[in-house]
Automatic annotation (TrEMBL):
Name of protein: Alkaline phosphodiesterase I / Nucleotide pyrophosphatase
Lineage: Archaea, Thermoproteota, Thermoprotei, Sulfolobales, Sulfolobaceae
EC numbers on record: 3.1.4.1, 3.6.1.9
Pfam families: Phosphodiest
MF GO annotations: nucleoside triphosphate diphosphatase activity; phosphodiesterase I activity
EC class: hydrolase
Keywords, in A-Z order: Hydrolase
Signal peptide: none
């Protein structure tokens, strides 16, 4: 897709963005109620608000294609019988995957964004890498404070699976990390792959063994390309098309398995990036720097910053503590919550760079918020 088409799409979306925020529906067709179904399928009981009812075989593949939102699916021209559902808030990988493998709402498990505040650690932590945002080393905190101590309410149902043998297939490098072990890695068995072709080869090999009842298959390529080039760029759409075609081909060869195909979030094409590092007046009012995500900004402060934010950044929708249950679902521990959450109603990204030299503000695709393009995701059932 050319730049002219992309720009037209951005401009068209910007015309309707201010009226398009979608609040999570933790009782409806949401990735949370999907997770509650999977937990029950594995013989684990959770006190869920609601759960999906799906017809699947006794063996199941859960394929999660990172970043492949409903908006990107519609660009692929792949013929699939897909249902549009919603994700959870913030619409970001760490929060969604934690919900998906704990059958709990973000407010219950406490993994609230790409970066989140952890009182036990005295500051903001990168949840996927389990380290401070200024540190590149993965799991640098684990030797001092394990993930389970920082996030005591993250309890993967895979550890409690009854009579089902699970396995995960993930990119090499993210297996056996603190975050993985607390979520999908709790199955205890995993296979890794090095690229797209190897991913589907590993999946095919595992399916041929016919030894597992539940297979989690995770592919991040669409998300990686969407961040770099934007969600409607040719590499992003081609990647999504190839992934969906490959999973369709494999599913037709293994009818014994049902395939649940979904995503954690979609993406928006960023129209402008705002650096909070340059807003010293705001920084002076905060107890810690802004955290969360570029499109779900969490603020801890002793001041009423809502008026300041609304005046300076008119497109930000400001949510106070009385609104948090609408965003995060059931809440376990109020101490993990910020004082305010700001969500863009347009296509801007709002970033605080913890590192002085960071490329985060250069990305063309972002997510985390409540617009349709980032919040609506597909649900496909094959061999159901």
């Amino acid at each position: 897709m050319g730049n002219i088409d992309i720009n037209l799409k951005i401009n068209t979306y910007n015309l309707i963005a201010n009226m398009d925020l979608i609040l999570p529906d933790y009782y409806g067709e949401n990735i949370y109620t999907l997770s509650c179904f999977i937990a029950e399928y594995l013989g684990v009981q959770r006190q869920c608000l609601n759960k999906m009812n799906l017809n699947v075989n006794s063996k199941l593949v859960l394929a999660l294609f990172d970043g492949l939102g409903w908006n990107i699916l519609n660009q692929t021209s792949i013929n699939l019988e897909a249902k549009k559902i919603t994700t959870v808030f913030p619409s970001t990988t760490s929060t969604v995957l934690t919900t998906l493998f704990t059958a709990s709402t973000p407010g219950e498990h406490g993994v609230l964004g790409y970066n989140t505040f952890v009182k036990r650690l005295g500051g903001v932590v990168n949840t996927l890498r389990y380290t401070y945002p200024i540190i590149s080393e993965r799991d640098s905190l684990s030797s001092s404070v394990p993930f389970s101590s920082s996030f005591p309410n993250v309890k993967s149902y895979l550890k409690e699976a009854q009579g089902k043998k699970p396995i995960s297939i993930v990119p090499k490098g993210i297996e056996n990390t603190e975050f993985s072990n607390a979520t999908h890695g709790a199955s205890g068995e995993s296979k890794t792959y090095v690229n797209f072709w190897d991913a589907f080869y590993q999946l095919s090999q595992v399916l041929q063994q016919d030894a597992y009842d539940f297979i989690y298959f995770y592919v991040p390529d669409v998300d990686t390309l969407s961040h770099r080039y934007g969600p409607y760029a040719e590499p992003t759409i081609k990647s999504a098309r190839d992934i969906l075609a490959s999973i369709l081909e494999i599913s037709q060869k293994h009818k014994k398995y049902s395939f649940i195909i979904t995503a954690d979030h979609g993406h928006v094409t960023v129209s402008e990036t705002i650096l909070f590092n340059n807003d010293q007046e705001l920084i002076n009012m905060l107890d810690v720097p802004p955290y969360g995500d570029s499109r779900a900004i969490f603020l801890r402060t002793r001041y009423d910053v809502s008026t300041y934010l609304s005046r300076k950044y008119e497109s930000l929708k400001i949510f106070g503590k009385t609104d948090f249950e609408k965003l995060l679902g059931k809440i376990n521990d109020v101490s993990v919550l910020p004082d305010y959450i700001a969500v863009p109603t347009d296509y801007r990204a709002f970033i605080f760079n913890f590192k002085e030299k960071d490329e985060y503000d250069k990305l063309k695709g972002h997510h985390g918020g409540l617009l349709q393009e980032e919040f609506a995701i597909p649900l496909v059932i094959l061999n159901g």
